[in-house]
Amino acid sequence: MLEIRGVTKHFLGVPALHDVSFTVERGEIAGLIGPNGSGKTTLFDCVTGFLAPDAGKVVFMDQDITSLAPYRIARLGLTRIFQQIRTFPRLTVMENMRAAGQQHQGLRLTSGLLPTRRIRDLDRALDDQAGDLLQSLGIPGVADLAAGTLSYGQQKLLEIAMALMAKPSLVLLDEPVAGVNPTLIESIKGYLKRLNELGTTFLIIEHNLQVVMDLCHRVFVLDSGELIAQGPPFMVQENEQVLEAYFGR
User: Fold this and answer.
1) If you placed Cys at 38, which of 78, 124, 222, 244 could pair as Cys (CB 3.0 to 4.6 Å)?
2) Where are the domains positioned within the chain?
3) What is the C-alpha separation between 203 and 218, in angstroms, rounded?
4) What is the C-alpha radius of gyration for the chain, rounded to an integer number of angstroms?
5) CB 49 within 8 A of CB 72
6) SS3 label, residue 94
7) Which CATH class is domain 1-77+169-249?
């Protein structure tokens, strides 16, 4: 589904990524881990069009997306959720969801050209989709609350729900449980597993290694911009290079 082919990126001559290659298969939850500064976020930036790699290619669903803008990549079905919360805190949860759906469908620029009845039908469909997503993520009672009044963990769930308004095939998640209390971490893990069972593929950056080991089918490990290991979690956690990168062993 997603192919990283020899991606290389330098900043002021310093390599942030060097010849990174791996494939995320349809239907899996894949983890991307590594020490701080190993290149994880830079790789996400290259995959989603926020940075152009100096060399290599990114292929999604058999299409070269290396030079595409982020919004075009998103409309192909590859959505990213950032580490920092990116909701509209003064808008209600439902308004946030509706805005996300309109953005992904390109309705903001074209709605003035559509008949009023068609607009109402589209809005109703978005509201129904949003309600179903909030229900499936365990936060159905917050639709009319301002997003900024939700707990940090609930805002994380809201961001996941907003991303899913695009009905993506692949979601890139950057630290979905960072700063979340242990009880809600278990809930988020359960929701991600359920969404995966329903057909969504995930690539996840996460520093909580226990979450990675519990959640992911396969794990890719970066260190100093290079891919040093990949495979099932139980194999990766016993890899000598991985232990050296994390613990200096």
Assistant:
1) 222
2) 1-77+169-249, 88-167
3) 10
4) 19
5) yes
6) helix
7) alpha beta
